[in-house]
Every structure is written in structure tokens, then in C-alpha cells.
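Fold it.
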Amino acid sequence: MADDGMLLNFELGDAPLKTQVKFTGGRWRDRKRAEKSVKRWQQDPTASATPQNRRDGGEQDSSRPPKRQRTENGSLGRNFGSRSAADGQPDGNRAPSHAMKTGQITSSLFSSNPAPVTNFDEPAAEEVEPAKPSNAPLTEEAENFLALGLSRRVAHHLASKLEMKAPTAIQKNTIPQLVKEDSDAFLQAETGSGKTLAYLLPIVHRIMRLSLNDDGSSKQTKVHRNSGLFAIILAPTRELCKQIAVVLEKVLRCAPWLVCTTVIGGESKKSEKARIRKGVNILIATPGRLADHLDNTKVLEVGTVRWLVLDEGDRMMEMGFEEDIRTIVGKIRKDKLDKQNKEGVVLDGILPSRRVTVLCSATMKMNVQKLGEISLQDAAHITASKSDMENDAAGGATEAVFSAPSQLKQAIVIVPAKLRLVTLVALLKSTFARKGSVMKAIIFISCADSVDFHFEVLKSTKTLEPPSPESSPNAKTHSPHTDTTVAPAAYITSPANPTIMIHKLHGSLAQPVRTSTLNAFSACKEPAVLITTDISSRGLDVPAVELVVEYDPAFAVADHVHRIGRTARAGRPGKAVLFLLPGCEEGYKSLLHSTAPTNPELYETVLQKGLATPVDLPTPTNSDEASKKQSWTARAEALQLHFEQRLLAPAPGATEDAEEDTQTRTGKNGKQYKTRPTKPKDNPLLDSARQAFRSHIRAYATHVREERVYFDMTQLHLGHTAKSFGLREAPGGIGGGVSRRTHKPTTTSKGGASGTKRTFDDRDGGDARDGENPSVDDDAARRMREKIKAVMNVASEFNIG
């Protein structure tokens, strides 16, 4: 029986079958736009996902400008994903990005990036033999502290207790001068060369001679803490004052009858007055607090003061302490010089017969010369090199070349703005990949808000209990002040180093918090990272710092040299890495002085090395599975997507449908009212990212005038820079317009190379949140470049405290 069915023949042709893509969620217009993009892409796979651009470099419709994608708050935002062809960066035949539920567009990390100017195909410079450490102690057998004129008691204490048997070059040239002569001195040497001990040892030696005979036996009249104040040491920051005090206390263990103390900002004046009243022989202070005590503390007598030391003089002038230093020098010189103290101990003949001023500075900039005119009289110029001193004495050049230590290895990484965050994670991950390779690293960032954000992003989200003495070797150093500034790190751990501690430090923190955080970083027995501002760039000597990362370039070249000087100290090896954007910033490398050739490298090298293994993500997101892919590019994009999803996650305790929740309440008249729908709160990490972005842009404009040709605000891409903070679009409010500001900036700096008054606050304008007035976001972003040019003319550290 024949089949009663119907047989139909269809000719399908040679074209492949096209799958129907259906979009759900989001807004109606976004779904329609995405469907049209997919349809156009299916018709011509070589075309881009947007009608304005083509990935194959084909013709474009120049009659219409590219449209901006409309975001959920109604403002126009940049569609970063649609700019790849316009910027001439092919991205392969990738499916078009689709709009997420928030209405924002996810862009690729490796598209639309500007092309670097540097030619990376050039052959690398020939490797030279490892340079001998330029700041290491001398190795000659005849060179010891006893031969420099110090007492046998001091020399034995340095060799046996402090394990210092030979001096450095600057100590060899400085100690005999300050021990035998009574003239002023200007010390100039590279970082980590031992300038602090160079001026401390002669002062301690001569004060000890008031109590000891030449053979080391004790005199009948021994000076003590009430015998008078003999030396005052000024330093620009509180951390440097604390460090000088720690070094001095170690030296004074050979003379326990002598006492030193600090008077710095952020601490109780009452307790400082009590310590001064009990008696002190050497006082370490910041200029502002010392000027305050000279005016208001009657027990502070300076008649017996023989030494005034100005450490990091160039930094004090930059921070606006010129008037305070004038006041201090004037009051000390105004008081009559006592030839004997209240107890009748004769001071002349042992101590200097005049007041000696010692100025320490790394450079001979104009502000340092001005400070020398204020404080020095017929000063001797002392450097680490004997030839420089002879040339200066003969009337030669007065400006010594200041460079980094010769054993310091410097690297420059050219990183596009969008890839900065993932490249930083990859660099740290590869750094701590091997156990014992690097113990401590310091990351320098331009402003305090950015430090807070990167600390919150990179720290682990797991809550830890306070360590017990039995469970952790760091329990003794644990302090309640460090609960918000010290935490285990995420993303950068490895099987070799499963625990890495991360710290943050900036001038906006309270002084007890700053002190405890720095102590915790110094005493940490596990691998540790310190994220900080320029507050840590001067004079700090932290053991085992083997890596310095300049995530944001310094505001001036001199600050760059001080930053990288936190490693490779006292002859130890070290490495410094500088992040630069492709384009005009690449020319900045011509200003850097390095003893070894520095070849810039592209970010791809760092990403390939750091993302060779999967990254352990601390919080679950939709990108967790993608992060386990084998390709380093896929892992980088998954990591960036993870950061963005962390910022877009609802705040703790908030629900996605919070806007729909309404409640009914009963009024006094008995009527029932429906409450307004509650809007879900933003993630605190999202608010931190927005504020960090604003502060970063303002800080970018504070580079010194001579270097702004390399840090051009008009060349900075706001959208790409926003992605380095985990944001998908640049927030508004950068210009700090009156309508978007709730408070006026109150911090004023009188310093700077030009001596002009400036008003700055790295949190200025940050109280206005995105979404309150969306219509002004784009206008503020467009006006920002014009406004920011005239904001600041000199470099300074934000919120130095």
C-alpha cells in the first residue's frame, strides 16, 4: 500500500544555517539594538558589531558621528566596546558585546588601546657586569669607626651590638668633620647610604665626652637627662621622626644616661610637655610642632643647644615649612649660648663653641639653596665622593648628580590605562610565586583615596580572628589600630606563599594608626605589601624591601629617586618597576638617571608571566569559570570582569528588588500611607572606586610644570582610566563644580618649588554621588580638561596630614 504521506524537497543552498539569538532582560531599546547588531554581524562576519565601525578597516559612514550608548540613569556614557575599529585596533571576529541588565556595556581589555611609541623590536642593550653597590659599607681593613675619631666605647658598640664594623662613604667623609670642627655642614648623598648615622654618631660622641674621660672611665660629674638639651633634629614627616628616634635609641644603648624623645603632630601635647619637663638631651621633631612648643612650652630651653639638624631639607621646603624653619632658627639663635649648664658642667671645649647647623638634602635645588641661606653660615659641602668635595672646594660645579644606587635594577612597563589593574595583580602574583624570592614590596600611588580603594580590592574578604601568641608569630606585633590597615591579600597568593599580608599607609590616617601600620610592616615575618603615598618615600628604612612599584609616576623626578631608594639600601640588591601609559608618558624615561641601561617592556610580558596559572578569586562571581581558561588573555579579561562584577554587586544587606518594596504606615489621623520605595544602596567598594578615580585625575594634574609635557591631561582617556578602577564608565564630578560640592576645601599649602599658595584636598567634591544629577556628568567630564590645567602648578603629596 502506498504511503499516503507527502514528501517535500527544499533547497537549502550552500549558506550556513543562522542561529536565532534571543535577548532577554535589560531595556527594550537595548534588546532591539543588540538584535540588530547580531543580525548585521551574521550577514557580514567581517563587519563590526556596531554600524559605525568595521573591524576589517573598511569604509565608514563619516556623515554621522558615532552614537553613545545610553546608560540606565539616562546620561550618555561612552560605549568603549564600539571604539576598536575607530581607533584602528582589530579585535578579531568576536561576537558583539551585549548590554547587561544594568544597561552598561562590557568592553574588551585588548581593543581600542593606543599604540606605544617605543619600538620594542630594537635589540636590547648589552648586559654589563653587575655593578658594585655604591652605598655599601667600605671593605678596606683600615676603614673603621675608631679610625674616624669616635670613642672606643661607641665603636665597640657599633661592631658588637649593631653589627656595623665599617662606615659607608658618606659616613667616612662626614664623621671626622663633625667630630673635630665646629663649622656648619651640608650633607649630600644617595638614598640608603647612611646619612642618619653620619650626623648622629658625632653628636652622641661629643655629648658622651661630658661624662667620660679619654680612656673611657667615668667622670665625677656625669650628665643626665636634666643636664640640658644639646641637639634638635628636624624631619618633614612623622614617620621619619619615628625612624630617626629608633636609630638613635639603638646608638644610645652605649650611653643609657642620655635620653632622646620626639615631638610630632598627631600626638598629645600634654604628654610631650611632660617628657620635656622630665628632661631630654636630643629632641627629634617636625617643624610645625617644634615651633608650637617654642611659643607655648616654657620648660623647653634652648640655651644649651649646640646642634640643629635639618634632615630632608628639600622636602621640608616643598611641604611649606619655610616660615616655621625661619621661626625656629631665629629663636634658637636669639637665645644666649650658655657656656655651662645649670649644674655647673662646663660645655665649651668639649661641645662646639657655636651653634652648628647640619643640612641634609639629596639635591641642590633652588629651595634647598634658599634653606641654606636661612640656616647655614660658611658651611662645608660633604658628599660621598672625595672628588666631588675637592671640585667644590676648588670652585667647580656645586650641583652633584644625584642618582639611584648602582646595584638597583630598574624596569619600565608600558601599560594601557584599561590594563593597569590586572597588570599590577599579575606583577605581584609573579613576584611572590617563589618562596623567599621577595619578602616585602612597596607600591606607590598618587593619592590617599586611591590607596584606600586598592587596599580594599586586593585584600581578602575572609574575616580573621585576632591572632593568638600560640598560632601566629606576628601576634606580638598585632595592634587594634591596624584592624583597618592590615589584612591578608587575595589574588596574589601562590602555593609557595599562601599567606601574604597587605598594608596601607597615607597621611589621612590617625597618627597611632600610621605608627602601628608601619611597625607591623617592618616586623612582619611573612611576605608583605605596603600600598602607600609619597609619605613613605623619604628616609624610611624598612628591612627586606626588595621591590618598589611606582603604580602612579612621581610628581617630580626627585621624588622618583627617593621612592626607588626604599630598596637596594646599604649595599643590598633591589628592583624598581615603573608603570607608564603608552604615548606621551613614554618620553618620561629620558629624565630618569640610571647607572644600568633600562629597556622598556610591554605589558604582555608581565601578564604572560603572572597569569601563567589561574588566579584564586576571593569572592564568587559569574567570571569564576572563565578565570580557569588556559589563555592568559582570557584570564586577564576574566579577572577584569570579576573586579567589575564585585563593584556592581549589591551592598551587603541590600536586595535587588528593594525598589519594589513598599510599606504601609498609619498616620495620626488614622489614614494609611504607603512609604516611598527604598532604593538599594551602592556597594561601598563602588563608591570607593568612584572617589579614587576622581582623586587620581586631580592628582594627575599636579605634576611639575617642566614634566607636564609627558603627563598631558588632554591625552588622558577618562573611560579607559575608569576601567583601571573597576568602573565601566567614568563618573562625573571631577571638576568639583559648586553644584556638586557639599564642602569647601580647607587644606592650604604654602610650599612648593614656586612658593605659591595652593588649595587641595584629595577628597574634594567626593560627597556628591553619581546618579544624583546625571545630566551634568558628561558636561563635567568635558569641562574637566580645561579646568584642571590651571588648578595646580607644583607637585605635592595629597593629605600629608
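DSSP finds 20 helices and 21 strands in the chain.
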